[in-house]
Amino acid sequence: MNQDNLHDILAHIGKDPKINDAFFDNLLSRSEWSNILEINRITLWRWEVNIINKIPPLKASYYETGKGCRSNYLDGYQRFLSATIFFLMKGKKYEEVKRLLITNFMHLRRKDFEQWRKKQ
Questions:
Q1: Which of 27, 36, 78, 107 has a Cα at 20 to 30 A from 44?
Q2: Integer CA distances (angstroms), 99 to 66, 88, 96, in order
Q3: What's the half-sphere exposure (Cβ side, CA atoms, 13 Å) at 103?
Q4: CA angle at 80 for the pair 115 and 113, rounded to the nearest 5°
Q5: Are 28 and 73 in contact (CB under 8 A)?
Q6: Contact 113, 76 (CB under 8 A)
Q7: Are residues 53 and 68 in contact, defined by beta-carbon separation less than 8 angstroms?
Q8: pLDDT in tens, the chain (120 residues)
Q9: Under 8 Å between Cβ of 36 and 80
């Protein structure tokens, strides 16, 4: 899998039943989602602070209210975006991942997630 190619990453997410099935749950806590990804909950928090919050269009979609409010639970889109970051982070630094997300943010909006999920 080419970790710089968003389409490869989305295909990989779609083929991973453990991750893909989690998009259909209503809400999962950060702890539950981090257990599925097999990462520490603090890692997920760091991605929010150091990556998502630094990219204004993704931040607006991620928090949906535009106020940057953080809920106790993650919806499907938030889990989708963090799964994308999970696969992008393999062997990369925050700055590299942010660059890739900035380049591809037009394909990572909520409406794009909903279209992608319908195809699954």
A1: 107
A2: 22, 11, 5
A3: 9
A4: 15
A5: yes
A6: yes
A7: yes
A8: 444 577 778 787 878 878 877 777 678 899 999 999 999 999 999 999 999 999 998 998 888 754 556 778 898 889 989 999 998 998 889 899 999 999 888 888 888 888 877 776
A9: no
Report the amino acid identity of residue 6: L
Report residue 30 as tokens: 């950060």
66: left (phi over 0), alpha (psi -120 to 50) or beta: left
Q: What is the spatial distance between Cα 90 and Cα 87, in angstroms, rounded to a whole number?
A: 6
Instruction: Give Cα 48 to chain centroid, integer Å.
Output: 9
Q: What whole-number distance in Å separates Cα of residue 64 and Cα of residue 97?
A: 21
